[in-house]
Design goal:
The complex is a heterodimer. By secondary structure, chain A is mostly helical. Chain A has one domain: MetI-like (MetI-like fold, Orthogonal Bundle), CATH 1.10.3720.10. Chain A contains 13 helices and no strands. Chain A is globular. By secondary structure, chain B is mainly alpha-helical. The longest helix of chain B is centred in the C-terminal third of the chain and has 40 residues. Classes of the chains: A mainly alpha, B mainly alpha. At the A-B interface, α1, α3, α4, α5 and α6 of A face α1, α3, α4, α5 and α7 of B.
């Protein structure tokens, strides 16, 4: 609809009408900003204040200590691997949900959301049992390949794959649903093979959604604590991840070091939020264009 | 040459393309199988393990878990923290949605991203932020807290704050898209007829987004009950006092009370599964409302 909506009903107090909208006082705005300030901005400001108090030299030294670096490698490396795996399988699952129909489809669709809904401690407990050396899958894997899963970096990977699985599926699904089949038919009619059609026609349109999903999954996996802490042995330089390092520092009352590493994680979160938003804006070109064009 | 357009449901290329692409006839059937296998191994097997292990030593042993005072106090604390956190977040979510959804203003996308921030911050960092603010020894407000004797970290207020901070975006995120979609007409009509802002909200806006709001409420509650990382940092994890149910699961597992850990897990997993089923039901209700609206317009 292109008709300009009347500028009415924006405030309880109409004398604010001349002010820019975010300054107009009304009840929803007041609640929103008060709540955000108390719940979100205040803790963020506190963290910044404490981090600034550390001093740049000490900050850099703690942030780049060998132990910290080893946990970044572990967290970011394994999270990248896990989210890439889910990039491939997420596309596959989204394809199965949209482009085919089979018995149990609804169940599959519901199961995808379980990692969002299941408390991370429960996920960690279940995974560390299933992939333990006596577990349903860990036992056979160890007998066949000699690899231990629980209490190794591989276990961390399993937990991160679990918690980041839904993201790509849920970002790709709407885009895949809105794709026009006519394009693919046109591609076949012009003599392209299935592979060519997929790679040249379908995949480019899905790419922003896939990347956004991978980025969301990666960001979530990097910050994940509950499930990883239970399946990992939490041994430094072996499979210790950054969030666990922060918890260990807090438990040892080394609040300053925890603040430094926490700030590094916070900066990463902010950067990843910007990247994800940029990817979503890029993706909207594909999604929005179809309906009108 | 007879020219036929392939039917819509058939992903395979037309027969006249080239015989070497016959492989792709198997691919459409293979994709659902692979998808199910992957989800089966990654999600279904661990989910089933919770149920099987909870009852591994029999139903009696499972029920005996609930005689443990630590488990009961953890369950009580979790319910109390959730009961406080969810209404606050519901009010914020509805207020933010009505304030944001129907207006265009510079920085709207930024504000939405800010509301999403708790999704991307590690729960551990969320807990740390609260410690840095309210710790009686290291916190920004240490002086105030010491002089008044208020206890936030290692007690209920800290747990509630951590829960609120982690779960506040859900409600707004569910309601905003629906409000954006629906437009202003009904509110305008109500206002023209002399309704106050409060009446418009209560009688027009809220009913029109009721299912999305309900879904947001379900998500907020499920997440609040299960929050682990942020709560574990601020609660101090004292058994029988500041231990929530998810923390109890980890503690029991570390103490080798495996059946107790799985028993408590089953309670939490049941909540998660119920919330997923409610989600399905709510989605169907939303769909029904949408088609009813469409039918009415015609």
């Amino acid at each position: 609809m292109t008709v300009a909506l009347p500028r009415r009903g924006q405030g309880l107090l109409s004398r604010n009408r001349g002010l820019p909208r975010w300054l107009r006082l009304n009840v929803p705005w007041t609640i929103t900003w008060t709540y955000l300030s108390l719940v979100l901005f205040l803790p963020l400001a506190g963290m910044l204040l404490k981090a600034a108090g550390v001093g740049p030299a000490a900050f850099w030294e703690t942030a780049t200590s060998p132990l910290a670096l080893s946990t970044y490698r572990m967290s970011f490396g394994i999270a990248a691997a896990a989210s890439l795996i889910n990039g491939v399988f997420g596309l596959l699952i989204a394809w199965a949900l949209i482009r085919s129909s089979f018995p149990g489809q609804k169940l599959l669709d519901t199961l995808i959301d379980l990692p969002f809904a299941l408390p991370t401690a429960v996920a960690g407990l279940a995974l560390s049992f299933v992939y333990g050396s006596e577990g349903w899958l860990g036992g056979p894997i160890q007998r066949l390949t000699g690899l231990e899963v629980s209490f190794t970096p591989l276990g961390v990977a399993v937990a991160m794959v679990f918690i980041s699985l839904p993201f790509v599926v849920r970002t790709v699904e709407p885009v895949l649903r809105s794709l026009e089949r006519e394009q693919e038919e046109a591609s076949w009619c012009l003599g392209a093979s299935s592979a060519q059609t997929f790679l040249r026609v379908v995949l480019p349109q899905l790419t922003p959604a896939i990347l956004a999903g991978i980025a969301q999954g990666f960001s979530r996996a990097v910050g994940e604590y509950g499930s990883v802490v239970m399946i990992s042995s939490n041994v430094p330089f072996k499979d210790l991840i950054t969030p666990t390092l922060i918890v260990q520092m807090i438990e040892e009352y080394d609040i300053e070091a925890a603040t430094v590493i926490g700030s590094v994680m916070l900066i990463f979160s902010l950067v990843s939020l910007v990247v994800i938003n940029a990817l979503q804006v890029w993706g909207q070109r594909y999604q929005g264009g179809d309906a009108s064009g | 040459m007879a020219f036929t357009i392939p039917p819509l449901q058939d992903l395979s290329p037309p027969r006249w393309v080239k015989p070497s692409f016959r492989v792709s006839h198997f691919l459409p059937a293979l994709i659902p199988i692979l998808a199910c296998l992957y989800v089966g191994v990654v999600i279904l097997v661990p989910a089933l393990a919770v149920v099987v292990q909870a009852f591994a030593k029999g139903f009696g042993v499972f029920l005996d878990n609930f005689k443990s005072p630590e488990l009961l106090s953890a369950l009580r604390l979790t319910l109390i923290a959730t009961a406080i956190a969810v209404p606050f977040n519901a009010i914020f979510g509805l207020a933010a949605a009505t304030a944001i959804a129907r207006h265009r203003f510079p920085g709207k996308a930024l504000l939405l991203s800010i509301i999403d921030l708790p999704f991307s911050i590690s729960p551990v960092v969320v807990g740390l932020m609260l410690v840095l603010l309210y710790s009686p020894t290291h916190g920004v407000f240490a002086g105030v807290l010491q002089s008044t004797g208020w206890k936030i970290i290692f007690s209920l207020p800290g747990i509630v704050m951590a829960t609120i901070l982690v779960t506040f975006p859900f409600m707004a995120r569910e309601v905003i898209p629906l409000l954006e979609e629906e437009g202003w007409d009904q509110e305008e009509a109500a206002r023209t007829l002399g309704a106050s802002d409060w009446q418009v909200f209560w009688k027009v806006t809220l009913p029109s987004v009721r299912w999305a709001a309900l879904y947001g409420l379900i998500l907020t509650t499920a997440r609040a009950l299960g929050e682990f990382g942020a709560v574990s940092v601020v609660s101090g994890n004292i058994r029988g006092e500041t231990q929530t149910l998810p923390l109890f699961v980890e503690d029991a597992y570390k103490q080798y009370h495996t059946e107790m850990a799985f028993g408590a897990s089953l309670v939490l997993a049941t909540v998660a599964i119920v919330s997923l089923l409610l989600k399905l039901a709510v989605e169907q209700l939303m769909e029904r409302d949408r088609s009813a609206v469409k039918g009415g317009e015609e």
